[in-house]
Design a protein that fits this description.
Elements lengths: L13 E5 L4 H12 L3 E6 L2 H15 L5 E5 L5 H14 L5 E4 L17 H22 L4 E6 L24 H23 L4 E7 L15 H10 L6 H4 L1 H8 L10 E3 L2 E3 L8 H15 L8
Parallel strand pairs: 1-2, 1-4, 2-3, 4-5, 5-6, 6-7
Antiparallel strand pairs: 7-8
The protein binds NADP nicotinamide-adenine-dinucleotide phosphate.
């Protein structure tokens, strides 16, 4: 059996990692670049993105190992521009890692008028993946890896299709848990739609990782206090990136699709994250909310 934390040859492969300027995304991008991949770092902040791309290039010891595309996952027009720029820059795309995510204590809305956690964690990645799908299909075997979370376990009542924008009730961790449930359901339906195409889709929980997650005033009160107290016990970002790197690179999971991984192993997510009907419904609603024309979806 191959080493689950092993380094595989990624030379000649192109990987897009969203939110690669910090935390798990940075380590994922840097590790894959170190294996020889050409990495497209995406970030919403140009300065942070440039700094990260330079650090990843330096760590890989190769000029041009990482290039930057700047866009905001919480702004659908920006996601479309970002996808166009990626398509202009890379003739092939072997792996897309949907990594970026936020947890927000207070309800805010994006420029599109959507609740921000749901928009950044699900709608943005949903649109981006669909816009990059033809390029992934043309580069088979290809992979879509989506960073979800064990926090989906708290979303016992499922997606709450009657209040997807959390207008009636907002509790930061609850909304975050549902957005991570959306990541798993999205992966389930994406894998179903991609069956037989040579493009796989898997999601994962990275562990509890010492990153910028919940920092910068995004999380306040009890949540911020809890994160601060528990922080020393969290995994390092390098360890937190292992399952993302494994799913992006290991031959052991070539052809494996529609699964949820924890510690590099396929794991059953909670019952409400295995609901294929909810996965189909979420896909349809997301197509409408993102304005994705039916012809361009998977
Ligand atoms: N840390 C954990 O314990 C843990 C546990 C389970 C799951 N996760 C998941 O792991 C993933 C990575 O998080 P992390 O822990 O590494 O946190 P992080 O250090 O805060 O990284 C999150 C990344 O997402 C980016 N991002 C946030 N909003 C964005 C937007 N609107 N558009 C584009 N990029 C945006 C951030 O950019 P900025 O630097 O500009 O904010 C940052 O690069 C997330 O999906 C998170 O839900 C983390």
């Amino acid at each position: 059996m191959p080493d689950r934390q092993g380094k595989f040859d990624m030379q000649g492969k192109t990987v897009v990692v969203t939110g690669a300027n910090s935390g798990i995304g940075f380590e994922t991008a840097a590790t894959l670049a170190g294996m020889g991949a050409r990495v497209v770092v995406t970030a919403r902040n140009a300065d942070k993105g440039r700094e990260a791309a330079a650090a990843i290039g330096a760590r890989a010891g190769r000029d041009g190992a990482a290039q930057l595309v700047v866009f905001d996952l919480g702004d659908l027009a920006s996601v479309r521009r970002g996808a166009d720029e990626i398509l202009d820059q890379v003739p092939r795309l072997d792996v897309l890692v949907n990594n970026a995510g936020v947890v927000l204590t207070e309800r805010t809305e994006t420029v599109d008028g959507y609740e921000a956690t749901f928009a950044v964690n699900h709608l943005g990645p949903f649109l981006l993946t669909n816009l990059l799908l033809d390029r992934l299909r043309a580069s088979t075997p290809a992979r879509v890896v989506t960073v979800a979370s064990a926090a989906h376990g708290a979303a016992r009542r499922g997606m709450r299709f009657d209040d997807l924008q959390s207008e009636h009730h907002y509790r930061g961790m609850g909304v975050y848990g549902r957005s991570k449930l959306a990541n798993i359901l999205f992966t389930l339906e994406l894998a179903r739609r991609l069956e037989g195409t040579g493009v796989t889709a898997n999601s994962l929980h990275p562990g509890t990782v010492r990153t910028g997650y919940g920092a910068d005033g995004d999380a306040r009160g009890f949540l911020a206090f809890g994160i601060k107290v528990a922080r020393p016990f969290f995994l390092s970002p390098a360890k937190g990136a292992r399952t993302s790197v494994f799913l992006a690179s290991s031959p052991e999971v070539a052809g494996v699709s529609g699964q949820y991984f924890v510690k590099c192993r396929p794991t059953q997510p909670r019952r409400w994250a295995r609901d294929t009907e909810a996965a189909r419904r979420l896909w349809q609603v997301s197509e409408q909310l993102t304005g994705l024309a039916a012809g361009r979806a998977a």
